[in-house]
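Now for a sample.
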Amino acid sequence: MKRTACLLIAAATLGCGLARAEPASYRVDDDHTYVTFAIDHNGASVNRGRFDAVDGSVRFDPAARTGQFDITVQVDSLYSGSRGFDAHLKTADLFDAARYPTLRFVSDRMVFDGERLVEVPGRLTLLGQTHPVTLKANQFRCYPNPRAKTEACGGDFEAVIDRTRWGMNYLVDVGMPRNVRITATIEALRQ
């Protein structure tokens, strides 16, 4: 029995390894994907928020070390832990959810150092404007996902952006920071 289980695990692992040898498309797993932001609040604390409605796709070719990301975030899914703050963040002062209901990150390149993914250069569309942003890869890995019964690829990414490049200037003139730290936890399932 133990030998059979070991053989099944080895076969599953080998099968996923063979599948990874060719380009594949992956769909974002919304159970394991979210985007957060953090910005200093008067040097006393850090304001944080999280977007839970994230959709998109990843294309990855491990042999060629190439890939693409196309990730869309629904602004209305923002949650900071405070209803009042959430409501204000969605106004025209900041994310302007009524006019710009989504944020979008698109990349057609993945940068590797040997076997390790180090960054994903792309373009972020926010408030109707698109500018370059490079996501630093803190970790990235593909593995056989037993729950989904397919291969999953996922990683943890981060970037610091100057929000004023997109026209988000609220309170900058009175000292609120321009820089916002973005983290994206993205996991996608092979299609």
User: Anything to note?
Assistant: Helices lie at 2-19, 83-89.
